[in-house]
Amino acid sequence: MFGNRIFGVAVIALLAAAAPARAQDDIAAKAQTCAACHGQNGVPIDPKTIPIIWGQQASYLYKELHDFHSGDRTSPIMAPLVKEFTLPQLRELANYFAAKAWPEATPPSRAIYRRSDRHCGAACRAAVRGS
């Protein structure tokens, strides 16, 4: 009887210790939905229309998610997605993305400059050459 009780306590302690890791895994899995538009590496697929969420302040992210969830802010894409989450899950998502590093800025490729040389002029060519 006493051995069963110790075993039961040990199992509960093990499960309790594993819960935070499992919860973090769950949030990371849920964040994959966000990566479809906001980017796997923090760079959105269309930076002109989709905001960077990596490294953004948690309170700001939560406010935006909350507003989509409540209907205070509308979006045919975001509103249906966030409705699937509870408010505590939205808080966890906000914290998850806030903990990420702001994505590195990537300069446009040289090919873009070469294609636009005739429109760009000497300033672009100098930027490409680094002079």
The CATH homologous superfamily of the largest domain is called Cytochrome c-like domain
The biggest beta sheet, please? none
Spatial separation of the terminal alpha carbons = 80 Å
CATH topology of the largest domain: Cytochrome Bc1 Complex, Chain D, domain 2
Beta strands, count? 0
The low-confidence runs, each spanning 5 or more residues with pLDDT under 50, are 7-19, 111-118
Give the DSSP E fraction (strand runs of 2 or more residues).
under 5%
Based on CA atoms alone, the radius of gyration comes out at 23 Å
> By helix and strand content, what is the structural category?
mainly alpha
Number of helices: 7
Named CATH architecture of the largest domain: Orthogonal Bundle
Number of domains: 2
What's the short version?
With 131 residues, this protein is mostly helical. The chain has helices at 2-38, 58-70, 78-82, 87-98, 110-115, 117-120, 122-129.
